[in-house]
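Hi there,

I know you've been waiting on this one. I reran it after we fixed the sequence typo, so this is the corrected version. Both the input and the resulting structure follow.
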Amino acid sequence: MESNEYDTENKSKKKLSYYNKRLLLLLLFSSISNPYIMLQSVVLHYQPPLHCDISEIQENLNNLNKSHLNATVPWIEDSNGGIVRSSCSMYNVRNKMNISLIQSGKDDAVQCKKFHFEGVETSATTEFQLVCENAWVQPLMVSIYFAGNLVVSLFGSYLSDRYGRKPIFLVFTFIQCLSCVIMSFSESLITYGTMMFLSGGANLINFTTAVILGCEILPQSHRYYVYLFLELGFSIGYLTVPASAYFLRDWRWFLRFSGMINILYIPYFWWLDESPKWLLATGKIQSAKKVFAKIRKINKESHTDTTKSEQIESRKKIEAISTVWNTMREMLKHPSLIWRLVVITSGWAVVNVMYYAIALNTNNLTGDRFLNMLYGGIAEIVGVLLYFFVVSKWGCRDCYCAILCIGAVVLAVTPLFALWNPVVVTISTMFCKLCTSICFNIIFVYTPQLFPTCIRNFATGISSAGGRIGSIISPFVMHAGGSGSSVVPSIAVAVAALGSTTAVLFRLPAIQTENLPQTVDEALAMKSVFSIPCFKIRDVTNAVITNDEQNDQDNQRFLTARI
């Protein structure tokens, strides 16, 4: 099989081929625009200091002074016990044209209808006045973004398995661009929320499909480079978001800039190739031959082996019947694969809650909000480098469990640091983000390795979509911590993280050197083994196989090329 032999040729090389280097650079640049979409709510929902708009009162009163302000805006106690002027209420002085300097009673206070925001910066929060009584709309819009992740990923991943990696990547990149530009012209919350939904879905499918495409083209020995370069591109984009937000203080121009970045990916129509693994698995033999010929041409490799065409034709029938739905029906017959999908999905949910509750909450941390976002980008890029080091040395599963446990413990004790020094809270929060960034990197690469080729992107999309449930509730977890004590949400998320690590450790296989499974049988052959110095625990689900079944599986593996 040409696919298998191509992998073998690359495995024998210590260095990446020219084509693979070219592909990695394309993947790196493809992800630079993704953080602009993911972090857009940090910019769009920025809430500057505000107070009630008293311009109407000022029109009726000349030389409004501090005494008049005391008679207009009440004093309240903030969450830290300090006394501050209210941002959301004012005394009802409209009928007191001869205002007395004696403050009215609390019963005379009313909610503000209009607000004055300090500074020159504009955001969706200031224009739509999403504060005070309407503050609940902010986390709702973020949840709508993640709902787009959830809903669009359900059919977007299927489309990728059905129609190919390249066309779906390009289509959703275009949708990502279009949704940002339309959102920048929105004049109502309905348009704003709709475009937020579409941008969320397009952003996820764009990135996930790029991961799958790279993993299927590069050989096993270099497969970890795929997510490394994609996440490096994401981190570079993350680091540029604060600078872009700093210079583009108008939220509408920030959105237009975020959308127009995607125009740079138009040449990908010619530069990016379809996954030959997907082409072979779906019976598109001639297209696969063209891709392999292009790879050999770019690498300047000679190829005169005439047996490969015969090998491709001998496998044509086997590959053609290995459709998405056939493989899915076969997968449903095996409980171990179902449990595998459930466990990895729960891991996605926990990581999503931790990651986004931190990444989208930098405005509420101590210090300059642009610097806090920059610190998050630094944590992101450090997480990428650490991810590559630890995963290549110890594998995905064990690293995920160890790092997530550490992050969960730090998250649980972070609220206690607020009693000591707010700066320590920022430091511990960024450490938690570092841990979750590494775990996010790991789970993106680990998930595709657990499932057969024809449903690999579909299973990745399902687990990622299930994880978006965690993303959807993360804004409300963040809001709960911002409006009061963060002890309860921090401990709850930490406990969920520890439960996820336990399930992953005991139910999922530790994959480090195996090839990606092409068939259901190959996926079942990967057993979950948890080793400690004294004993070993093995998942025995579907482990009892008769001699005839074993022979059938051996014959199947002989005929079926492994990725």
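Quick highlight: The chain has a mean pLDDT of 76.

Best,
R. S.
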